[in-house]
Amino acid sequence: MYFKSEGIVLREVLIDEADKLLDILTKEHGLVTAKARGVRRGRSPLKSACQLLTYSEFTLFEYRGKLTVQEAQPIEQFRQLREQLELFGLGSYFAQACSVVAQEDAPNPELLSLLSNCLYALSRLGKPQLLVKSVFELRLACLAGFAPELTGCCVCGKPDPDRFDLSQGLVHCAACHPDQGEGIRMPITTAVLCAMQYICWCDPKKLFSFKLDEASLQQLSSITEAYLMTQLEHSFSTLDFYKSLLPYGETT
User: Fold this and answer.
1) pLDDT value of residue 177
2) pTM of whole model > 0.85?
3) Residues 51-66, mean pLDDT to the nearest whole number
């Protein structure tokens, strides 16, 4: 059986002398694994479309539960990501995180859209890396079913709490004591709280339409990163690699 689907290559494994095994986040079928035969040969027509972080239209053949890439045409290659190692490292982190959330035979067009929009923001729009990273992490947490409650202090209801609970996904005032136990709570400024509210609630087409100063971006990135890893109960080797590329003393 043949079928077509658009998708982004999340992971590639080299097998044999000329083949790859690809994990692809597709629009209609969720996460799929397919073999690309001969793709590592110099003249392979599949070569450009089957690279990591490439958005392509795939023609897949299914036989006995296994998929093979028959044809593939690149839609967006995000070339700028391949020209800057930091950007490629950050994009690879996005891909690894999506592979944790995505499921086989479970269409998730919102997840594919988030990934493609974030890669586009890095490669074409030139948005700050910390801003794109924060948007991706918090929006991914929402898509995975871990949307935080950010409307106000969970104890007294004040609209400007200054603590964020990573385990519960709640905000509260430093003087208030939530009933949910002693989780890890990070300081949060009003500007960062507003940014998190915006990321969670805004139209997907306007995800990057906000600005923060550098200190606030640093705090936002630290919170969204810690929150995503806490909720997914997962660490990411690609994130460690990305951080190793940053200038000395710079953190996320």
Assistant:
1) 73
2) yes
3) 95
Give CATH for domain 79-245: 1.20.1440.120
Token code pair at residue 212: 């923060």
The tokens 């990501």 sit on which residue?
A: 81
Decide: helix, strand or coil at residue 11: strand
Return the half-sphere exposure (C-beta side, CA atoms, 13 A cut-off) of residue 173: 10
In contact, 126 and 81? CB cutoff 8 Å: no
Instruction: Tell whether the model's pLDDT for residue 180 goes beyond 70.
Output: no
Contact predicate 115/95, CB 8 Å: yes
Identify the CATH class of 2-76: mainly beta
Amino acid 131: pLDDT: 97
Q: Do the bridges between strand 30-36 and strand 66-76 make them parallel or antiparallel, or are there none, so unpaired?
A: parallel
Residue carrying the six token digits 């871990």? 146
Residue 231 pLDDT > 60: yes
Cα–chain-centroid distance for residue 93?
7
Element (H, E) at 226: helix 214-232
